[in-house]
Structure formats: structure tokens, C-alpha cells
Amino acid sequence: MARNKRIQAIVEALQGYHTVLDIGTDHGFVLKDALDLNYIQKGIASDLREKPLQKAKELLKNYPVTFYQSDGFLSIDVPFDAAVIAGMGSYTVIDILKNYPELKEDLIMMPHDNIDVLRRYLTENNFMIDYEKIIYDRHFYTLFKIKRGKMMLSEKEIHTGFHSVIDSNYISYLNYVIKHFEHLVQVSKNDKKRYLENILTYYKEVLHDIHDGVTIY
Ligand SMILES: C[S@@+](CC[C@H](N)C(=O)[O-])C[C@H]1O[C@@H](n2cnc3c(N)ncnc32)[C@H](O)[C@@H]1O
pLDDT tens, 73-128? Predict the structure, then answer.
């Protein structure tokens, strides 16, 4: 059984892959749970820093996992069919992707901030969002499954999401973000206020369309 909803969601998305590279593995929970559940056959645990990698080595002793101290993909010299990048800010994720432009494998990502910045990077750099799913685990998190390929996101999709799983978590998330932007609009002025009003409108339109049954997945 996975340990919390955030980790559980990442693990669920790994079903069917053979060898999964976990970048920034830290404790190693994702690979342990995916292997325990027989969702994957092998793991590659990697982290920028030695201490987290040591924790993963202890947790994953006797598991079919190899370990790398690596900045993103840079020192990984074995094949994998999917990579996880979770628990980092979007700017760090983008740096990791920029440093490995030859990436062809699928990505499971769960960045913890600036989701719009990441979507913009993906659409401008030949990545395709297969789906997004909102997870609630004390905070809202966006899980992405990404493939290599072309997509063209509108400004509205860059903010509100693309191929999002429409469920009660997504609707709670929309309501939460709408409240957040309503507050920001109230305390802002001039150009900033107009920019925030635009984003607020995007979220309200998406929620409205869901309630009207326009958006069906
Ligand atoms: C907050 S932990 C996230 C752990 C786990 N992935 C999760 O989602 O629960 C972030 C980890 O990413 C590692 N990290 C940060 N930048 C990295 C990079 N460029 N390459 C590899 N690992 C990195 C950190 O050392 C840390 O162990």
C-alpha cells in the first residue's frame, strides 16, 4: 500500500512501464511502492545529493534498483522507459529537461509550483501532455503524464490545464484557485490587475463549462 495520496498518484501512473528512472528520488518511496505492487520491473534511483541517495539505498536494499548521483539525466547511462520528476519547482524541472534535449521516454511529473511556466515550456519544446490529474494531499498537486510530440496550448490552457481529468478534485481545485485570484485581483492595480482578471476569467470559464456539461472527457 502506498504511503500518501501524492506518492500513491505518482506510483499509479507508472503501471505498465518496465524500468523507471526516479530523478530526485530522495527517500526512494516511489520506486519501492511501484516495485512492491509489481507495477514496474526495475528502478533507477538518482539524486543530485549524496545524503538522499544514501537514504534510498537503505530503503531499496535487495530491490532491483541501480543508484546514481546525478544532476537530472546527466550521469544516467542505462536505458529506462519512463522517468519521474516530482517534488521540485518548475524552474528546476525545466533546467533538468533543458540539459537533456535528446529525451524520448515518457515523463511522469509533479512539480510543486509555477505550473503555468512549466506548461509553457512543454508546449514550446515538443512535449505533449497526455493527461493531467489534480491530487489533494493537504495541498493541491498537479500530476502530469508527458510524451514527446507536438501540442499547441492556448493561453487559457497554459493556466488552467490541458487534458485534465475532470473529477471532484479538479473542481475543488478550480474553486480554490478562483478564490485565490479573486483576492489577488482585489489587492492589485492597473496592468497587474488586468492580467490577473484575465486569468481569473479563464478559470471561471472552465468551471462554468464543466457545470454546463460542455467539457467532457
Ligand atoms: C523534495 S525532494 C522530492 C522527493 C521525491 N521525488 C518526492 O516527490 O517525494 C527533492 C529531491 O530532488 C533532489 N534534486 C534537486 N535538484 C535535482 C537535480 N537537478 N537532479 C537530481 N535531483 C535533484 C533533491 O536533492 C531532493 O532529494
Answer: 999 999 999 999 999 999 999 999 999 999 999 999 999 999 999 999 999 999 99
- Does residue 96's CB lie within 6 angstroms of at least one atom of ligand 1? yes
C-alpha cell at 4: 500518501
Burial (CB count within 10 angstroms: exposed 0-12, middle 13-18, buried 19+), residue 131: middle
Which residue range(s) make up the domain with 206? 170-211
**Based on the domain organization, do 141 and 203 belong to the same domain?**
no
33 CB near ligand 1 (under 6 Å) = no
- Give the residues of the chain that fall short of pLDDT 70: 1-2, 214-217
Ligand 1 close to Cβ of residue 81 (< 6 A): no
Ligand 1 centre distance from Cα of residue 166 (Å): 29
Give the closest residue to 115 by CA, choosing from 145, 160, 148. 160
Q: 96 and 71 share a domain? A: yes
What global pTM score does this model have? 0.96
Q: Please indicate whether residue 72, judged by its CB atom, sits closer than 6 Å to ligand 1.
A: yes
pLDDT of residue 213: 77
